[in-house]
Amino acid sequence: MSFLVDNPDVVRTLFTRDQIADKVQEIGAQVTADYAGQDLLVICVLRGAATFMADLVRAIDLPVEMDYMCVSSYGNGVASSGVVRIVKDLDCDIRGRHVLIAEDVIDSGLTLKYLIRNLESRSPASVEVAALLHKHREGAVESKYVGFTCPDEFVVGYGLDYAEKYRNLPYIGVLDPKVYEH
Ligand code: PRP
Description:
single chain; six-stranded mixed sheet; binds 1-O-pyrophosphono-5-O-phosphono-alpha-D-ribofuranose; alpha/beta
């Protein structure tokens, strides 16, 4: 048994390593076409999006800059607390710049709603979102670039965690409820 390959806590693989890699290339190609000739800043929403961001920027064939923001909405539980707080802000000034937010998952949309409003108040040229997963809940924000529609289950891997674990799984899968139900 291996933690990475046949993790016993993952009941079902949703998206394999290869499917994710293909999808990230696809999004990267779209971003490359859309932002050609423009000054693009990609913002990573730590910590879940770090893996997606690292692969996405290497699929964008443009001289992008990167910055990092850390927000928190979940704590260590499985349901959104509804409270978003900035744990680490950007280092750079985004005024007049084209900003692309890289997110791993849009669930309730609370995190992105807050982030978009916050970033727009800093007068960027534009703010768009690239989300690898979207759960398409009612009222959740739309994202210009979306990888996969995700079922409403607790998913881990490729950056997504439960209690800070499973982020290093190279695929995305459904976590066994036994892990978080006591
Ligand atoms: C997760 C994920 C998104 C957010 C999405 O972050 O990375 O940022 O939740 O949920 P929402 O659409 O319901 O707001 P989390 O707060 O778990 O932190 P993490 O990125 O450190 O895993």
